[in-house]
Design goal:
Layout lengths: L20 E3 L1 H14 L6 E8 L5 E8 L5 E6 L7 E6 L3 H4 L2 E7 L4 E6 L5 E2 L5 E3 L1
Parallel strand pairs: 1-6, 2-5
Antiparallel strand pairs: 2-3, 3-9, 4-5, 6-7, 8-9
Length: 131
């Protein structure tokens, strides 16, 4: 009687986690416009984060940067021909989970706006928050 040995099954890959931060269609379009007009290097991604300071205790960070040691990387609008790569320090996830970044271009406001469900208090200008 012969026995057939089989290789142990590969463990299943963990399910992909949703990005803690999303960008609206308007924000994605504005980021792509900035990348094209400012000739942002290909190795740079959009950094979303927080830092201490501001009227309410923490301020948002939004800019282009290289990948750093503690970063999580997300591809937003991955189905598009040019997805937006987002870097976020994994330590900032607690403060940003569920945040949506929108872009306003109107008579009363222009710029990126954060809608953060983790914020318990925000300042009048919307650029800082407490969690």
């Amino acid at each position: 009687m012969s026995t057939v040995q089989t290789a142990p099954a590969e463990p299943a890959a963990p399910p992909a986690l949703p990005a803690p931060v999303t960008l609206s269609e308007r924000a994605l379009a504005e980021v792509r416009r900035i990348v094209a007009n400012k000739q942002i290097p290909a190795q740079f991604g959009l950094r979303v984060g927080v830092k201490g300071g501001g009227c309410s205790g923490m301020s948002y960070v939004l800019g282009f940067d290289k990948h750093r040691e503690h970063d999580l990387t997300f591809a937003l609008d991955a189905a598009a021909d040019d997805p937006v790569t987002v870097f976020m320090d994994k330590r900032h996830g607690l403060y940003l989970m569920g945040t949506t970044v929108d872009y306003h271009d109107g008579l009363d406001a222009r710029g990126f706006v954060f809608d953060n469900p983790q914020a318990t208090q925000t300042c009048g200008c919307g650029s800082s928050f407490a969690a």
